[in-house]
Design a protein that fits this description.
The complex is a heterodimer.
Chain A lengths: L4 E12 L2 E12 L3 E5 L6 H9 L6 E6 L2 E2 L10 E4 L11 H11 L4 H14 L15 H13 L5 E5 L7 H18 L2 E6 L2 H7 L2 E6 L2 E6 L1 H6 L4 H6 L4 E11 L2 E5 L5 E6 L8 E6 L5 E4 L9 E11 L4 E6 L5 E6 L12 E5 L5 E5 L7
Parallel strand pairs in A: 3-8, 3-9, 6-7, 7-8, 13-20
Antiparallel strand pairs in A: 1-2, 1-4, 4-5, 9-10, 11-12, 11-14, 12-13, 14-20, 15-19, 16-17, 16-19, 17-18
Helix pairs in contact in A: 2-3, 2-4, 3-4
Chain B lengths: L6 H28 L3 E3 L2 E3 L5 H8 L2 H34 L3 H14 L2 H12 L4 H8 L14 H24 L4 H9 L4 H12 L1 H17 L2 H11 L3 H8 L7 H29 L3
Helix pairs in contact in B: 2-13, 3-4, 3-7, 3-10, 3-13, 4-7, 5-7, 5-11, 7-10, 7-11, 10-13, 12-13
The chains are: A alpha+beta, B mainly alpha.
């Protein structure tokens, strides 16, 4: 990261009584960066966001914004603003009054507030709707107004707590791109909490994956998708095949795993693995190649199996193959590649060893 | 959108409307008509005479009592509503889940009965009551404070105690519509303390506050049991007592009582309208 740091989270811990929600989080976010905190519900991502906003206080650690230590400051004294999950517009105020609220509190003259509100309405594409009440808006419009309201005081950092989660898929996809465009246009720093990995991939400069109160991996969407740092990360981002077995051997970084049922699979080890230890291999369905053929013709890199299911997904076709030991593997192919493939057919599966990652531990274990 | 009300709708609100008409509107209309009658000894003479209203507004006794009634009612409501608001706020946002428990306690106090609660206050405020005994024990006073009971203040203290549970309910109910994210959103945007309440919370619960104010104001101004029991000689008479006297015992004058009832009703409506308008102005943003 070459850009100056906007938010620096250092050693942040949060405990509610005996229950630890966050364990020593360290994260630096650059100016103009769009960072998503991604994780399953209960992973602590919202708590971390609320600690940055000032609504929760860290049990240990510090938060600095543009170099200033804000750890002990209340929300209204921080240069951050929060966009809430359901907008939280004030129902007794019009859209324009909602947006101008913070400016009026700061004592701006009326004309200046009106001009700024118009500018923001235009930015979020709500031109002409300033006079409406929050109940006269659609779900998408509410979130646009909430965004404009939070942007009004020009926060150094905008915090967004799953603002699109209540919208339907089509609108959500549209709003994702628009949010990203607004962030680019403003050159603002956004921290975005979501449990939706697609959303995080679409919008973020960097994604911080969280699980059970810890940061699992921080990186660009491409880094995280192509080089997940753990089983959890590979499983949480995108779709993947997971195969757990014991390490039969490691040769020049290529690990061979043997499942309890005797299936041998190969992948590249990200960390040193001891022979005989339990490990899990992850391979993306689109990396899996498939050809018709008898198991007897299999190369050492291939597995014989029977097609259990053919699922048509439009742009691609997902083939589910059952290996002799019962392991199910998915291969995603283009439609044209699947002619003649049917359920019950015997096929050979394979993938380049460097397309599959292997980590110690078993599936479902904490990353 | 304008259509004849469906039979289902009529069936649903019909009974309630009928009940309201027969047992409220009709008696009130009869009483209103009677307020223009005159009383001669034991006989009521139908007619149309403004004498009762004239007497209610210009005699020596009535205007003073009316004024005191409005004042006691207003001051009581003006104490009850902010306390109820604070209590509702605490229940909703400070105690959260235990707020329900507090609500339960508040409701139980309503079940304990009106007269019982007045007597309870007498044992607290009386010359040999709990409060005086405690103050004497502590040596803070050398003889009991007699002004604690049998004064207009005693009337207001007891009315506040009696009406608080009733006033909490509508405000708390309105407060359930205020989300934690509304409060946090306002704080995040820079509103704290009084400004948070004046610009966000109070406007959002204004209907509840209006109801609570109307309820406590009307009930306090209309009460005639509390003044009798704890008001004593100076604080004892409110318009309710006068009206009650006009309807019972010797020298009863129903037309006069009816006229007094409508005067106080008019005044209450007026004060309520002014107050709600004022609240709306104060909370305008």
């Amino acid at each position: 990261m070459t850009a100056p740091i906007a938010v620096e989270i250092t050693g942040v811990e949060k405990r509610f009584g005996d229950h630890a929600v966050l364990h020593g989080i360290d994260l630096a976010i650059g100016e103009n960066e769009f960072v998503s905190l991604l994780g399953p519900s209960g992973c602590g991502k919202t708590t971390l966001l609320r600690i940055v906003a000032g609504f929760e206080h860290a049990t240990a650690g510090s938060v600095r914004i543009r170099g200033e230590d804000v750890t002990g400051l209340p929300p209204h004294r921080r240069p951050t603003n929060l966009v809430f999950q359901r907008g939280a517009l004030f129902p007794h105020m019009s859209v324009a009054e909602n947006i101008g609220y913070s400016l009026k509190l700061r004592g701006w003259p009326k004309a200046r507030i009106a001009a700024r509100v118009d500018e923001l309405l235009h930015l979020v594409k709500l031109d002409g709707l300033g006079g409406r009440g929050p109940t006269q808006l659609s779900g998408g419009q509410i979130q646009r107004a909430a965004l404009a309201r939070a942007l009004a005081p020009e926060p150094s950092v905008l915090l967004l707590d799953e603002p699109l989660s209540a919208l339907d898929l089509k609108l959500r996809q549209h709003m994702q791109l628009e949010l990203r465009a607004i962030q680019r246009a403003l050159g603002a720093t956004f921290i975005y909490v979501t449990h939706d990995q697609t959303e995080a991939l679409v919008m973020s400069d960097r994604i911080a994956i969280m699980n059970a109160g810890r940061l699992v991996q921080v990186g660009t969407p491409r880094e995280i998708y192509t080089r997940p740092a753990s089983i959890f990360a590979s499983d949480f981002i995108g779709e993947t095949n997971l195969v757990t077995g014991s390490v039969a051997g490691v040769e020049e970084g290529v690990v061979t795993l043997v499942t309890p049922g005797g299936l041998r699979v190969r992948g590249s080890a990200s960390v040193p693995l001891a022979a005989g230890s339990t490990a899990t291999l992850s391979v993306r369905p689109e990396a899996v190649r498939l050809r018709k053929g008898d198991p007897a013709d299999a190369t050492p890199d291939e597995i014989g199996g029977t097609i259990a299911e053919v699922v048509y997904l439009g742009s691609r076709v997902r083939i589910e193959v059952a290996a002799p030991d019962g392991t199910l593997l998915w291969a995603d192919l283009r439609d044209a590649e699947t002619t003649g493939l049917e359920r019950g057919m015997v096929v050979l599966l394979g993938w380049p060893a460097d397309a599959a990652g292997v980590w110690p531990g078993s599936e479902g274990a904490e990353g | 959108m304008t259509a004849r009300p469906s039979t289902a709708a009529v069936r649903q609100i019909g009974p309630a409307t009928g009940f309201f008409l027969v047992f409220f509107v009709v008696p009130l209309a009869i009483l209103f008509a009677m307020s223009f009658w005159t009383q001669d000894g034991f006989e009521r003479i139908p007619g149309f005479d403004l004498a009762n209203y004239l007497k209610a507004t210009t005699s020596r006794l009535y205007p003073a009592v009316l004024l005191r009634t409005i004042l006691v009612g207003f001051v009581t409501a003006a104490i009850v509503v902010p306390v109820a608001y604070a209590l509702a706020w605490l229940m909703r946002f400070t105690f959260e889940r235990r707020g329900r428990l507090i609500l339960g306690v508040v409701l139980i106090s309503l079940f304990s009965g009106y007269l019982v609660r007045i007597y309870a206050w007498r044992t607290i405020l009386g010359t040999e009551g709990l409060l005086n005994a405690a103050l004497l024990q502590l040596g803070l006073i050398s003889e009991p404070i007699t002004a604690l009971i049998f004064s207009p203040w005693a009337v207001m203290i007891v009315l506040v105690g009696l009406l608080l549970p009733l006033a909490v309910l509508p405000i708390w109910s309105a407060m359930t519509n205020v989300g934690r994210d509304h409060v946090e959103g306002a704080r995040d945007l820079g509103a704290t303390g009084l400004r948070l309440h004046r610009t966000i919370i109070l406007p959002m619960v204004l209907p509840g506050v209006g109801t609570a104010f109307a309820l406590s104001f009307v009930l306090a101004a209309g009460d005639f049991v509390v003044p009798t029991m704890v008001g004593g000689a100076q604080g004892g008479t409110m318009v309710g007592n006068l009206i009650a006297n006009e309807f019972r015992g010797s020298g009863a004058d129903w037309p006069m009582g009816a006229a007094l009832a409508f005067v106080i009703m008019g005044l209450l409506v007026l004060v309520h309208l002014v107050t709600t308008r004022l609240l709306r102005v104060v909370t305008r943003w």
